[in-house]
Amino acid sequence: DGVAVGTAVAAPAGAGGTSGDPLHDDARYREVAGQQFSSVTPENQGKWAVIHPEPDRYDFAAMDAVVEQAEANGQRVRGHTLLWHRSNPPWLTDALTSGQVPDAELQQILHDHVTTVVGRYAGRVQEWDVVNEVLADDGSWRGDNPWIQALGPGVVRDALRWAHEADPAARLYLNDYGVERAGRKSDAYLELVRDLQAEGVPVHGFGVQGHLSVESGFPDGLADNLRRFTDLGLDVAITELDVRLPVGDGTHASGADLEKQADYYRQAFSACLEVEGCTSVTVWGVGDAWSWVPRNYPEHGAALLLDEHLEPKPAFRAVRDVLAGA
Ligand code: G3I
């Protein structure tokens, strides 16, 4: 099947309405997202705060729109995400942290959510980032994950099992950042995968996010690290690739940085292409105007393949050339 080339598609994190959603409001965005990529990930539309804003109310409008658009374009969909420490609605955070809600009830909340969301998109979402960012940099369980704080790491197994029951065909992933290289964090994921497999827990993939910076160096050994996971029988994917650049107080990147960025993108795509079992590379946004980077890293941006006007950058051409040679 080859390697799918994906993009995150943007939409407001607020309740499911479509206002401000470029997939609806911007014809050029829709065309580029629909034509240049073979897979999409809802950047925020599948997160708990968006899709399950109140205990007894789900809001599928935004996620439905992404899935329908992808189907119309013949694209795959990567679901994102079911168990995470961020973008949870206040009611859920309260339930998990108050100490007032019995464990069995918290488990029931997770069970309902996973079953409802995965079940709704069964057969239409091919991969799910079920478990997102559960380990800290030193490989321990993250101290700020309210699920793990409340229920212990067994929730990881529960979420995977329930997701599998809701859609036996979906490929279920663990996904994290800072795991591009071999090291404490990716080593710990390797251990976790071995443990899950030994217990018969359904886990099918490992997602390496790939939020890179030209100032930090390209993660050497990426392909070898991916192979450690495919050697265990897992699929792997690069799920959230971007390469941020210093842009001063504007959006202007230097030519040298743009070339360096192109080389990072080339290396990331090459690594996936050379690893059997690497199924996709997803970039974390269609163009620089929609990237999360400038909001989170002062004086950095220009992290994607297309610029603010959706015009191709050197990185776009580098990726096109790598894929043409594949
Ligand atoms: O749309 C609302 C707006 O209405 C509101 O006024 C404003 C006030 O804060 O928030 C806006 O929503 C923001 C949303 O992005 C859309 O811009 C949220 O606050 C903000 O938290 C949200 O950030 C997202 C972040 O995850 C948290 O969910 C980013 O878009 C998204 O790119 C980022 O993606 C994550 C992956 O899911 C997991 N890996 C890391 C990656 C980057 O942080």
TrEMBL record:
EC category name: hydrolase
User: Domain of life of the organism in this record?
Assistant: Bacteria
Please give the catalytic activity noted in the UniProt record. Answer: Endohydrolysis of (1->4)-beta-D-xylosidic linkages in xylans
Query: Example GO molecular function term?
Result: endo-1,4-beta-xylanase activity
Q: Name one GO biological process term.
A: xylan catabolic process
| Residues in GH10 domain copies | 8-322
Q: Which family does it belong to?
A: Belongs to the glycosyl hydrolase 10 (cellulase F) family.
Q: What is this protein called?
A: Beta-xylanase
| Species name | Xylanimonas oleitrophica
Q: Which section of the whole protein is represented?
A: 59 to 384 of 387
